Fold each of these.
Amino acid sequence: MATLANKRVLLGITGGIAAYKSATLLRLLQQAGAEVRIAMTAAATEFVAPLTFQALSGHPVHCDLLDPAAEAAMGHIALARWADAILVAPASADFLARLVHGEAPDLLAATCLASRCPLAVAPAMNQGMWSKAVTAENLDRLRARGIRVFGPAAGYQACGDIGEGRMEEPEVLAARLAELFASGALDGRKVVITAGPTREAIDPVRYLSNHSSGKMGYALAAAAADAGAAVVLISGPVALAVPERVRHIAVTSAVEMLDACLAEVADADVFIAAAAVADYRPRNAAAQKIKKSDATLTIELELNPDIVATVAALPQRPFVVGFAAETENLLDNARGKLARKGLDLVIANDVSAPGIGFGSDDNQVLVVSPLGPQRPPRLPKAQLARLLIDQIAQAMAGPAPDRSPSAERLA
Ligand code: C5P
């Protein structure tokens, strides 16, 4: 079953009596693993107090577009960028009409307009309003723009009528939102991903390493699992939770990481090298702690194996994706790495740019393949990971010959 683990969901609430069910919906989204923030229209706050949702979500509720203090804390643009998905439930007839026309007079409508993430609406209105041609036309126009419409259901309505227009039940809404993330782009494929830093022992208590947080590799693992792949995440030491439905192999050094990769790639379809592997390791790690003595200490280093190049050179190999962390000449360096290491795709990022790269939550990358470069927008790593997984799936299905073991198996 699809989950919402590690997903950021903005739950929008508009003016309708079904707003009382949004408290249950919020709970269900949280139980499915999502981090949820709430935005309410003024009319919604007449039905249920924002304090209810603040207490349940653990965050202030976003209500006012023109409140400088609220906008300074997390403005509607930041909220739009934060969300992996927006679900407006209940969505009133009036709010749907606002969406159709691209109007943004309130914070929720402005956030929907500013967002790039999937948007779903759960219409809720009196059956008379629902049955009007203009409502159907509005919904058709929203669907044509890729907005998902969940429900409505039929039955008793708060106004005493019986008919279509009730908000879909919270259980159904939570399940349908989770399904949005299950793209199926890598159904039946095995994906092996390396992530995090490696640690190269100097002696039993000291090591050489780097600042890699592992966030991008872990986000790719979650996105690949969402896309239907069987995912193996081979990771150096990081402070991150292993995504759901991902098999995790903990390693420390580059040599251990290579061994784990070689044991896993034989039947893999995709190999993604997101780890920041130490280029060198101490030639002779001391068996005992090195004592402080002379003014200088010399440690001789030897080259580590290049894991991604080793995998790319295997006679029967998966589709191989490498990363390139650069501080200059992004495109040229990425192209060079593609050719030199024999990769199918390189994801390059400028680690000198502020707010992206090592340790940060956002990333902006250049995707370089033999078909040419592409630059997706700057995005939170989880959203970028989903986009990259889709691009990898497309590139695998593209004009280049499919060398993957499952293609062999199918042949
Ligand atoms: O050569 P450079 O370290 O810049 O290349 C980065 C890419 O190569 C990343 O995908 C990284 O995971 C991979 N790499 C590797 N083994 C190494 C060094 C880098 O797999 N020893």
Note: The pocket of cytidine-5'-monophosphate is lined by residues 194, 254, 273, 275, 277, 279, 304, 306-308, 322-324, 337 (CB under 6 Å).
Amino acid sequence: MRPNGVLRLALMAFFLMSSMHAATWKYAMGEGESDPQGIYAMKFKEEIEKNSDHKIQVYPVGTLGEEADILEQAQAGLLQFVGQSTGYMGSSIPEMDVFFVPYLMPTDPQQLDAFFKNGKAINTMFPKIFREHEMELLAMFPEGEQVVTTMKEFCSPEDLRGIKIRTMPSPLLLETYKAFGASPIAMSWGDLIGALKTNMVDGQENPAVWIEAYGLDGLSKVMTYMGHNHFTATAMANLDFFNGLDPKDQTLIRNAAAVARAHVLEVAQEFDAIGREKIKAKNPDYKIVHLSEKERAVFRARTASVEKAFIERAGKRGEDVLKQMKADLAAVTK
Ligand code: 6CS
């Protein structure tokens, strides 16, 4: 074989190997590109593509199915990555419902950062739990403080009696709003706008950035901060896919996930404030209420039944996760 033939063969093998190595990975998420999960995904994509020959194809919510569908697709290996709201995960990973036990997270932004960055439950316990469900946890992050939109003001469980509050499909969120005195209805995001317009539900909870972005303030009269929770999102990889990668690519993914989480932790708080300001500017008559500590204490006193319901469903490990979340909360708020 002529020398240049050997060289050509070597070059072809090299490019074949490098093309085999350069992949396009699918990343589906539960929000749009300009929403917090989208900001996370686009930063992750930027980091992966900046530091390797791989590409990331991002699929916003609705392109490959609704929020409830994409975790199953990722677990089946149809997707390499998935971004998901915790409110859609409790039915497949019961321990994830711990994120719906009220008053378990700090409200102060710095304390919240530390809770997500250093908490043992999130950074040590959940990665092990996710692996049992065919997923490699890459990041968890808050998108903004949960705030409740309704047609009438409320400041006590009595005021919420008979009020139909939509919740994400997490079984524990129904328990939470029953404990708060309301009549909760579990519903996917895709059905909520119609349900609000037809008075099938009276209200719902989401962060201000989401309320403003999707016009939920236009379908309510007041939004109330109870200090009861934050909207938490996750980013994960299919476990078989991740374990099948060479260590270099695993490190690439973990580094990209860490950079993206730091980025979204930074912008999510600002975004939430911007969302609130936009609501005030758009609709000066719209009421924004912050319950007092005394009023919050009445709701907080009702969380025991929610914790009990969580442990009944998530078992001993759920109880251990709950204990650790409380210890993590104490560690950042002391
Ligand atoms: O309320 C929901 O279901 C939606 N809310 C947010 C903040 N993200 C996606 C989720 O589907």
Note: The two ends are 75 Å apart (CA to CA).
Amino acid sequence: MPEFNEGLKKDYFGPAGRSSHREDTVIEINEVKVGGSDLAIIAGPCSVESREQILNIADEIKDTGACILRGGAFKPRTSPYNFQGLGEEGLRYLSEAGRASGLPVISEITGICQIDLFGDIDIIQVGARNMQNFELLKEVGRLGKPVLIKRGFSNTLRELLFAADYVMNEGNPNVILCERGIRTFETYTRNTLDLSAVPVLKKLTHLPVIVDPSHATGRSEFVEPMALAAVAAGADGIMIEVHDDPVHSVTDGRQAIDPEAFMRLVSRARAVRAALKEE
Ligand code: PEP
Ligand code: MN
């Protein structure tokens, strides 16, 4: 495998690179496509809080345009004293809600020891904090299921592409990349959404690129504008935290939007996408 030399080579050439695969990769999960002409919309709560909560939210969003249901069961929390997620029980409720609503499901894995619990989960998420957990990346690569990798808050786009290569080198071509904001000196928003990541990644890689404006901004009022900007920038999809009762959300309530706001966001996002296609 050629060694990457940042100083000499501006283009990226690993298996995730455009030079190894000219066409855009489209990942199919049941009837849902991520990449290509469709706009993928991933939505759901930050955390699975109870069976009722996830069944309710799945039911509310399934008709408003969500194509993939999210819900965290293993939560990577900054403080060890905060809710850590329902774990295995949470994954069970999430897959039940997926079956009931007909939506494929995605959840975050935080350690190799959890791999066997993800049998009914359609897409495995490797979060920002684990983007460079290389052993975990290799292990989810061997599993062969679609993997969504979020950009670490202090990682470059090349490092994100290398993370994708770790998965792909194990024979798993089904990788989705997600920009979710990086750390800068600005503290008004939770992170700074690096939207130039979208056209840059679309140039460098054939993999689908999605944007998470919820974790990027940390504030519900900024989620829609940045979601629309992400679509305008050419993102293949968006990931939105939606809660039926944001104020009482156990985690990340400040950035959650309710199903009604989500419905508005989706119809505007689709309009932006359609405007791009008209050219
Ligand atoms: C999440 O999507 O639930 C999450 C924890 O996101 P991130 O890894 O981007 O912080
Ligand atoms: Mn969250």
Note: The mean pLDDT is 95.
Amino acid sequence: MTSFPSDYKSGFVALMGPPNVGKSTLMNAVLGEKIAAVSPWPQTTRQRQMGILTLDNAQIIFVDTPGVHRPLHKLGEHMNEEATDVLHECDLTLFVVDVSRSPNEEDRILAEAVADHERVIPAILVLNKVDLVDEPVLEDHQSAYLEILHPVQESIPISATLGDNLDKLLPLIITRLPESPPFFPQDQLTDLYEREIAADLIRESVIFHLRDEVPHSVAVRIDEYKERDHHGAYIAATLFVERDSQKGIVIGQGGSMLKKIGTAARKEIESMSGRKVYLQLRVKVRKNWRNDESALKLFGFGRSKVK
Ligand code: GDP
Ligand code: MG
């Protein structure tokens, strides 16, 4: 952007909430493009990711976080640290909840983390998935969420999948942002490189096809990401699992499962990057990688701060 009005607003907006409430879906919907992996099973989002929306009067930088949940192993702890770090660093927090159900333990853990916070956090409660509930139930759940998140004053019901009320959410956000020139060029959509998004989309495909059979023990490493001129891109990736038995499941009979995973991931990467993709996947066992600091580093956990 070469020139912008002097009252231009720009700031960082954290998307906080338990897994599966629709944070990534909301970010994709607002940006009008799929840059974050979405799945009906929790924990597809493993890394913090920014989604940048540039408007005439404001630039909103959404920061999508891995959901807050109880630390079950090192990876879990890491994901929690990331989430609360973000809270400190952003100008505004959107607490995203699933209003089709009442608050559960995960919502309460999150609410406690907010109450422990030393400064008052400017926040909006976003009641997602309104398409799944009737008015009386919505009101019930809304007051239950406002009660546990009592420092938060403002709430808005939305549907990230249908796009309902997103046009009302954006002005609410912009009002709360500080005056500042934009942080990023106007055509930049995200801070992640295409290869990192590709890795996330491959993980999403694994989780989609295997559900609970290989419970979140899959890490994806991109080994090669090459342009082949007008032929598109060539991507080679390794899926790391924790056990030999999981390797068998991921590969499937005669390689059939790996083929399905690869085909679905390839289509998503093609539509994200707008060109043809040739995707080659292989599977390797790396025992207990989720508790292994060096492996966590290798797979890209431990990213830099927001600003
Ligand atoms: P995250 O873990 O909070 O990032 O959640 P995701 O964005 O991955 O979404 C989890 C699941 O909820 C996916 O199956 C989404 O399609 C679904 N979902 C998200 N938003 C809505 C919504 O507004 N209505 C309905 N019915 N489902 C939604
Ligand atoms: Mg997500």
Note: The radius of gyration is 20 Å.
